Every structure is written in C-alpha cells, then in structure tokens.
Amino acid sequence: MSSDESARLRALLSYWIKHNKEHSQEFREWADRAEGFGEDEAAKEMAQAAREMDKASEYLSQTLSRLEQKEF
C-alpha cells in the first residue's frame, strides 16, 4: 500500500469511527423515544443496533491503531 493510500485509509477509518458513534447515539435516542410511546420491542432492537455499531467502531479503532503503529 502506498503512503497516499495508507493516509487515505487512516482518514477514512477516523471518519467512519466518528460517523458510527453519531449513528449509535441517535439509535439510542430513538430507542428511548420508542420505549416512551410503548414500542418496547422496537426500542430493544434499536438499542441492539447501537451496541453492534459500537462493536464495529471498536474493530475500526483497533485497525486504525494498528496502522498508526506501523508508521513508527
């Protein structure tokens, strides 16, 4: 991988991590709202989606860390 590609990948990973966290937070907010109007099952599913998004972000963070360590 060229240094340009590596830099682009690191930038994309950073963006995806931030973007996923925003979505995860929004899922949680809507899960709370859904629960508030009696949609308990929908709330549970959205909360699960938020947890899965967090897991994806953890993997992306690990990848970013590994790539950054290779620079040194």
Key structural traits:
rod-shaped; 2 helices; 72 residues; mainly alpha; single chain
Topology of this structure?
Blueprint: H1 3-36, H2 40-70
Helix pairs in contact: 1-2
Globally, the shape reads rod-shaped
Poorly predicted regions: none
Hey, roughly how much beta strand do the residues contain?
A: under 5%
Helix-residue proportion: over 70%
Straight-line distance between termini: 16 Å
**Number of helical regions:** 2
Q: H/E order of the elements?
A: HH
Structural class: mainly alpha
Radius of gyration: 16 Å
Largest sheet: none
Describe the structure.
Helix content is 90%, strand content 0%. With 72 residues, the chain is mainly α. The protein has one domain (12-70). α1 packs antiparallel against α2. The model has no long low-confidence stretch (mean pLDDT 95).
Describe the structure concisely for a colleague:
This protein has 72 residues and is mainly alpha-helical.
